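Structure request: J domain-containing protein, Aureobasidium uvarum.
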Amino acid sequence: MDEYPFEDIESLGVTIAYSLFSRFGFYLFDILVTGWAQSIFYAVWIRAGDPRPQPGTRTFVQHRRRINIIVIMAYLLYTIYEADFQLRTAGNLYQDLGVGLGVDDRGINSRFRRLTLLHHPDKVSPDTDRSAAESYYVHLKLCRDILIDPTKRFAYDRLGPETLFWQKATTIPDYLSIGLRNLLMYYTGTAGVLTLLGFLGYIKQAAFWRFMALASLGVFEVYCLTSTQFPRLLTRLANPVFAIIPTHPPFLPFQLVSLLRKLVLTAFIAFSQIGPLLASPEAAAAAAEQNDQVSQQQLQRLGALGQALENEANMLMGLEMTPFANDEAAMREMRGRMKRFLVDNTVRSNVEVRNAMGEAIARRRQGVPHGAVGAR
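Returned structure:
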């Protein structure tokens, strides 16, 4: 039976889960935030009383597309920050021991002796939890033992803390064999997931460059794993940039690789969302123009229908008034009755007028004996 089966299954599972949840996160972020951001943009940018672009118009579509791109890029930056924050929170053996990445065996032993004077279970204060002190001291001793062992230190720097569980790996070729096998499984699974998402229609744009970036990252990981020195990308670029950020520790090769993996997968999903927005702005403008034309045609039809109804109503009114056309007295009487009807109907339908009349009548009836009104 394979000795380390969980490494491959875990890598493939993490790849699938991260791809699906990132995709869902982008969709959720797009649906919830883009509309809010556009509403806030109009509330701030457009003065009160001025008309806002209506959905379906060219201006509205252009604003929607630009805000959508900004929202997706913001979410991409957030996922990168989240991945970096998780790596910094997890730490590494160098940070736990309080030494630099280039420390030698003498420096490691010297640091461990100083920590022993402070954290050895026999030297801590009586108020301290002895079991917690023992666990912490055992962890410090484990850090010292791994970092002074050239083989284990080589494996830890490049493959991470999972190497601590590889009990039967004793030489560098053993660690390299397991690491290369895990890389093969990871990138095979990742390529399969991306192919499946593309087949289902979720990621269609730039398929060649997507797999080219994945292959480049795989080659870089193989270089990091087999090289005796840290990669220059880490020593010359990444860690000097991280040093500018206060309290940000330098990264080891396995941490840099982990960050690059999440960056590449997230970038795939982000650019698959942005691609349709940037691919054919002319098509989007043409669609908006077509929507404008359809809206204008609908407004014209509504206007023509309203004019026809008005003409028909005038014709019916004229037919009703035909018997009174030559009778001036009847016309005056008709106008007077219509005026009274309109006034009475307006008064009766107005709630405030009815309430005012009711209050006035109630005040007039105050003090009048019961039945007096009827007697009058």
